[in-house]
Amino acid sequence: MMDRLKRNRTNSRIWTARFLIVALLSFSAETLSPIRASASQASPENHGDSFPAEYFSGQGEIWEKLETNGEVMVAFPSQIEADISSPDDEDRYSFELEEESDLTLSLESEYPCTMELMCQGQVIGVSDRPYSQILEPDGLEAGTYTVRVIPQEHVDTSTYTLRISRQSDRKKQPDYSEAHIAGTLFDPKSPFRAINIQSEEEKNRGGSPIMAIHYLAHWQGPVDESVVPYYDKGDFSEVPSDYIKYKKAKPNFHVQNAVILPGYQENGVHMEHWKNAIMTYGSIDTGFFTSYNFRDKNEGPGYPDWDFEYFYVPKDWNYEKYGGHATLIVGWDDTVEREKFRVTERDESGKILAEAMPEQDGAWICRDSYAGLLPDYFYVSYESQDFGGPSFVPTAFAPPEQSDNYNHLYSNTSGGMMDVASKARGFIRGVQAFQNEGGSELLRAVGFATGQGEISYEIGVRIGDGPLDRVKTGYLKYPGFYTARLDQGIMIPPGADFEIHVALSGDDDKLMSFYTCQNVEGWINGIKAIPGKSYYYTDWDGQSDWVDASAQGEYPCIFAYTYSPMDQEITILDNREPAGEIGKATASEADREAQKATASEADQEVKHATASEADREVKHATASEADREIQRATASEADRELQPPTAPQTDRNADRAAASNAEAGIEKATASQAVPRYDTASGSNAAKAEEDAEDEENEWEDIILFDDSEEEAAEAKRVKEQNFWRIREAESGAIPNDNPNEFEVDPLNLDFPAKYDSRDYHLVTKAKNQGNSNLCWTFSAAGALETGFLRYGNQMIDYPRGLNLVSRDYPIVDGTISLKLRKGEEIPLNLSGALYSDCESFNPGSPQIYWEISGDLGSVEEGPKLSESGQTFCALKALGPGRVTVTAVSMADVSLRVSCQVEILEMLPARVHIEPETMTLEVGEIRNLNATVEADEELTVVYSSDRPDVVSVDKDGRVMALRPGTAVITAKAGEGNAACTITVNHRNSSDSDDDGDWTTADGPGVADTARGSWEPASGQWRFQKEDGTYAASSWERIGGVWYYFKEDTYAASGWFQLGDSWYYLSQEAETFGGMQTGWLYDPSYERWFYLEERGTMAVGWRQIDGKWYYFHAVSDGEMGKMYAGERTPNGYVVGTDGEWSH
Q1: What does the pLDDT read at residue 1074?
Q2: 860 close to 819: Cβ distance less than 8 angstroms
Q3: What is the CATH number of the domain that holds 73?
Q4: Second label for 678, Cα 20 to 30 Å away, from 70, 480, 604, 967?
Q5: Helix (H), strand (E), coil (C) string for 683-715
Q6: Residue 121: how many CB atoms within 10 A of its CB?
Q7: Same domain? 419 vs 558
């Protein structure tokens, strides 16, 4: 290993961060203040005496040094280039899987080396071919794994490249529905609509990346194009409101993070942030103002000769600014000559008044959404004004997560998302109150959206009337929507009220705020005020300065993501007004019938917390209504502040009322900050353009049906393009924000290649034609999501290629550092993270790592501050036993992270007993473990689960069965420990209360046909009856659900044919093998199917809920697929939703 990094130090620098934990056992009652992040730049030498300078130099035997004390934790995925330095050398790299995964491990070595995969010290896979090794294990359970690289016989030294990733599916090309995004935001039937429209035509509205974030944060997509297809003929004859509609569908995956980048700035400081995002996430979704003036490339007078491949808006030019247009940035090219962007300004007669071109070469590569009429891709000069400005919210979508990572979402902001909000300087804490109306759940993550960058965040959770527990801290480089995973999870009992607190902190003069859901003209309407659901505070510890935001109709965008063994659903607050009656567009009779469904019927698909329930969740005092209202201060309109109410609202918040006369220090967004909607450009130019577009629509058919002569055809084509462009000028597809949250972030100081194009890596899907709709914003958003899937769904590892975390003082064993302390003892713990790249033209010039801490934050106390630069240190003191998770995060890619557990125990002799020592649970059950400790002093018991995805355990010893499998719960106190082995089976009880997405065949009242117990075996399940035999070659009803057991006794899953009939049996872990009925969307076929009440797949004509549908009846590989937007074999035409109308 000693020479490899030296040779490559010009190509790949090691960025190093360090993190110091001082663990001190103490019984003091000091409070934990939020961990604040700093962007200070410390020199490599300024890291104290506890960590050698060579760890920061990027030279020397890096990997050898990292291995000297236990495991090296690496991010998943990773690509590692290292060396074997001697015949006795062996390299070990450990990584953690958060969920069951199929892996690909590859090793390419200069000389023969062997690769081993290990779990808990046991070898589970070996590849020892002469040079290239590969292992592809399937179904690896969540946990910590280690890859070992060792030289084969007679090999002294060797360089090698090790890649660790998921198995990829490179054949699947994503195609996501654009119309579904718009339908979710604007269709009156959608529970997640932002606007209560007045007419059908209004569904064809412009939008922004913020609306796409709202769509994704609420798990509404992405869904495949076939779910809600758009009109793709490109002949401009469609009525967009016909195909813009809401349809309830399961998303292909969850997008839990969206990064908002700095907007265009004249000095170009935004460029490195954009380039970094393109290389990391594949593309950027943004917009710009259109104007045909800046495509005029004719040198002389006369009619402009437009060039649609190059776009440039000169500085300070007064030009006809038409509606915004969204686009997808997929790369850049520094070598595009500036002369290609020369533009002219003309008077009404066509005389050239001025010419201009950029000062420098270079352009962004953009994908358009008018395929077949304009080039699929075009260039925009780096110096073009208005392109990607802050008002167009340049956004990159982080890697997707599996859709079963969390299965229950709580939101009080289903009515939209906007950056108009109350603000406070330096610190603000937002709170959302929710209620668990179902069974026990596990809070696994918290989501929130903010308009500030380079800030710290801290998350707190309160269950019922209990204390406010702080559970996670972290740092954000950019604004955006983020999901903070809670590594250990928090149990929420049935029927419990719970609160999610998110605190944002930064420099004292920085205005802190959340994105919110509230009425903003042109963006969101119909939001009602419901007191007691949302709050703001200006500190952590006191209850003095607070505001009931929801009483003013303002709800900060804070989400709770839980895992429920029983349910898969979304719970939203019923805080919006009904959609009401709307005018009808000139749509087909079938569509008009479909549009008669009321908003209330659609809302019933999503479980709402009613206003009365919301009122009951907060125990209001008997003060008058006037006293409970928030009074405004008498300051100026621009600076007015909110004052808290003068009466208590809850028993928990009694302290809030004690300072009712104190000013909250929270600045309310004024009416002047509300953002007007840009339908078209303001002024006579825009009005004239829109009138021209309307006048020319009558000529459109004549333009298409032109004569065959070449001269006339060329003229017709020119006129068609001219008229098309005038129509496009009137488009209002990308709505700019007049008052964006402008922010500054420190430079990244990175070097980039002169050219980068995501198309070269097959990451960009084909361009589409949006027709005469205003949906360019959905086309760019869907394109960004498709790029993200191709970039990460196939686990490409090229920028950056890895991240590691090591401990110098105490070894990491199976992903955990164990500390045992005597009272009053201090133990320093140095954790170092290193980020590395394998791109020759990419030479990072500054550290790019920041840190997160989660877990028992009440057991530690903060020391010095964390730094995003990764070169300052953070000192923590342990105030008592507990477990925390320390995570190093790549700033270039927020999904690239590596963690280790830190477990702190007292160093005292003890014996621990646990009851029971074995336990069998069904999915969803909760039990309490009883641990007793024999010791001279009172000790705290620390619990942990080796399979937290199967069984979760909290700090009080409550266990919750999440999915079938086996887990070992360990209870530790002092130097003693005891364990309980828990086996989790499917639910067997016939009184199942599972009301998830699928139903049983015969409904309630049908008796089970078999009783006994489930047994797992090799990733499958079989059922042992009470008489000891196994169910085989038979249907059995167990726990109210039908299963089919094959001849080998294992339960069937997926599509299953029995005789002439097809069935679909669940493949989900929690409901494996259960027969499904009703509607089924199969992503592999990209079509809808319908399963009859008895489970058989429908074919031919079927009347469902009073509507007729046709399902393919021929056994040719297409059987059962619902016809949509096409003609049936007997000549009937069905709509895009499959429904046939008279």
Answers
A1: 93
A2: no
A3: 2.60.120.380
A4: 480
A5: CHHHHHHHHHHHHHHCCHHHHHCCCCCHHHHHH
A6: 8
A7: yes
